[in-house]
């Protein structure tokens, strides 16, 4: 059975400057939307280490660094990059329509292994 998407209109894209993130409380979750030079990506706004607010992290390339202890997460896969422990945050489908960012809050996904991450990342890059 195919489940329905639940695209929610979140905010005008102009509200998130390039290479910055903003947190939004939506559908009972706190998410962080990032602007990667006009491409928008969304992850949960809670670092799996000790709950740091990832929206406040420094964006570099397609990653964000947690502001509390410096773990780095890939914004496309949600997977921690070179962390001492395997860790991942949920990512959410995101698109822009008529200048408004929409997030499918019901179809977040979480990658549990680097192998899965590598194949997912390859697919994402192909779609770009
Ligand atoms: S809370 Fe994010 S690295 Fe510690």
How much strand content do the residues show? Answer: 35-45%
Strand arrangement within the widest β-sheet reads 2-3-4-9
| Number of extended strands | 11
Portion of residues within helices: 10-25%
Q: What compounds sit in this structure?
A: FE2/S2 (inorganic) cluster
Shape: globular
Structural class: mainly beta
Q: What is the subunit organization of this protein?
A: single chain
CATH superfamily, called what? Answer: Rieske [2Fe-2S] iron-sulphur domain
**How would you state the average pLDDT, rounded?**
89
Distance between the termini: 28 Å
Question: How does CATH name the architecture?
Answer: 3-layer Sandwich
Number of H- or I-type helical stretches: 1
**Radius of gyration (Å):** 14 Å
Order of helices and strands: EEEEEEEEEEEH
Let me know the largest β-sheet.
4 strands, antiparallel
CATH topology: Rieske Iron-sulfur Protein
Level-1 CATH class name: Mainly Beta
Which regions are unreliable across 5 or more consecutive residues at pLDDT < 50?
A: none
**Domain count:** 1
Report on the structure:
- The chain has 128 residues and is mainly beta.
- The chain has one domain (7-127): Rieske [2Fe-2S] iron-sulphur domain (Rieske Iron-sulfur Protein).
- Helices cover 11% and strands 38% of the residues.
- The protein has one helix and eleven strands.
- Strands 2-3-4-9 form a four-stranded antiparallel beta sheet, with no helix packed on it.
- The chain is globular.
- The N and C termini lie far apart (28 Å).
- The structure holds FE2/S2 (inorganic) cluster.
- FE2/S2 (inorganic) cluster (FES) is lined by residues 47, 49-52, 66, 68-71.
């Amino acid at each position: 059975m195919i489940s329905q998407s639940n695209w929610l209109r979140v905010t005008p894209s102009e509200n998130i400057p390039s290479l910055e993130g903003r947190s939004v409380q939506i559908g009972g979750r706190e998410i962080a939307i990032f602007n990667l030079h006009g491409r928008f990506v969304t992850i949960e706004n809670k670092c799996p280490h000790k709950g740091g607010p990832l929206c406040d992290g420094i964006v570099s390339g397609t990653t964000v660094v947690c502001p509390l202890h410096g773990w780095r997460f890939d914004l496309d896969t949600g997977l921690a990059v070179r962390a001492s422990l395997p860790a991942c945050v949920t990512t959410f489908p995101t698109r822009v329509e008529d200048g408004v960012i929409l997030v499918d809050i019901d179809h977040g996904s979480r990658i549990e292994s680097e192998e899965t991450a590598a194949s997912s990342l390859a697919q994402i890059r192909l779609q770009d």
